[in-house]
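User: Second chain of the day. Same drill as before.
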Amino acid sequence: MKVKDITKVLETLAPLDYAESFDNVGLLVGDANAEVTGVLITLDTLEAVVEEAIEKNCNLIVSFHPIIFSGLKSLTGKTYVERVVMKAIRHQIAIYSMHTALDNQLLGVNASIADRLGLHNRSILIPQPNVIRKLITYVPKANAEKLRKALFEAGAGNIGNYAECSFNLEGKGTYRGNESSHPTIGEPNVFHTEDEIQIGVIFPKHLQSQILKALRQNHPYEEVAYEIYILENEHQHIGMGMIGEFETPMSEADFLVYLKEKMEVSCIRYSAFRGREVKKVAVLGGSGAFAIEDAKRAEADVFVSADFKYHDFFRAEGKILLADIGHFESEQYIKFILFEYLSKKIPTFALSISNVDTNPIKYYS
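Assistant: Same format as last time:
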């Protein structure tokens, strides 16, 4: 398989269209057409990780965090970022990053935390805006069924737990082609009226190119009339963070003990207890201070995330318990999710999980 074959599989799990605008995801180093000898999965790409890839004969590193985040103005080896990129290029190793593209998926980073905590009735904490598109097109009645089926097969028409959703209206379409036209129905320079069906379907934005390809390939007209709208409706499965519930509430002190055990962390930074039981829990892997108000609006009893600053803890205001478990700690299990996913999709391919501890923060006790 080539690098682009592996990354295509990864993008079925986490399409790059849903990465945050500030992020840098995708193939950051290497040739997309290079044949892959092996894949090494890691949270961060450090020099030691590249060396591990060399030892394991892996020429593709799948990293959660991007090694190149802002622009590189030089490659002289002065920083760890430059040294990693130089070493990867020298040894013809490709580096692919997923980061917030995976953060925003229902089965991504936050699902791994929710799984370990045993949360039920889950939903996205902050749905990503402008994700859903709507296609309206017009087709002769005789061709409507074929076109609908093609659009469904391309991924249109899914709403939550329902598939093949569409809305259809009967009407009259009119047109008159000029002397250069080749109408499927009718004659050039002759006004024509045709019984048509207006078909409306929704789709997630990352499928737009294949939806339009299916439309053009299965529509009988020489010129296809269609409209695409951006909807304000929230996508149920795309966005930052996750919120869920315990079947049985527990005290705040018991929750912190439980959280420490399940997430395998050495310590937890937390805000003052509210004196109420914990049932509803919001989680967000990585730096999550920006979502504190969202967790409060969702009426979560606890918000589990990382990288809270001193003044962030004041924002609890007695309404929520904030629990900072550490950036690395909140995302540490994503390597195993990616390994399991790729193992199912490409069962005969050489995959490895990095053994390098990339956590830059150490704790003294």
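The mean pLDDT is 96.

User: Great, on to the next one.
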